[in-house]
Amino acid sequence: MILMAAVDDNMGLMFNHRRQSRDRLLRQRILALAGDRTLWMDRYSAALFGAELDGHTVRVEEDFLAQAAPGDFCFLEDRSPRPAEENIEQVVLFRWNRTYPADLHFDLDLSRWTLTCSEDFPGSSHDKITQEVYTRA
Which residues contact 105 (CB under 8 A, 6 or more apart)? Predict the structure, then answer.
């Protein structure tokens, strides 16, 4: 699977059971990256996308990390990626380039992965979002 997540400078994902931020252009980028391949997420994330998911191959399941097949995309917001680590082929992080309060963090040790690509793009709520792509070292 190809795991996607948005994180702050401290790898924070959520605070007090809420996402740190939302960005319309980031959602469009996630859908464009997935293209016609399956994009998995849970109900919490699907609510963020809403009608934007129409016309895309999206599977909404609470145990999406266990169900995703090789080559499928997964968007993670509200859980640890560690239980699925052995099935992750690639990690795509979207960095907010800010520090937000966080009580849930992206907890994969990326020192065992190779950063293969980094690109900045403007968001709708952030002047700069950095997309980083990691593959297994």
Answer: 7, 10, 11, 12, 13
Among candidates 17, 77, 68, which has minimal Cα distance to 48? 77
Work out whether the CA dihedral 8, 9, 11, 16 comes out positive or negative: negative
Amino acid identity for residue 16 in this structure? N
Question: Domain-by-domain residue ranges, the chain?
Answer: 2-97
**What is d(CA 80, CA 13) in angstroms, rounded to the nearest whole number?**
9
pLDDT tens-digit map of 14-57: 999 899 889 999 999 999 999 999 999 999 999 999 999 998 99
Q: How much is the pTM?
A: 0.96
Neighbours of 44 (CB within 10 A): 16
Distance CA 14, CA 29 (A): 20
Tokens of 111: 């020192």
How many CA atoms, within 13 angstroms, populate the side-chain half-sphere of residue 16? 3
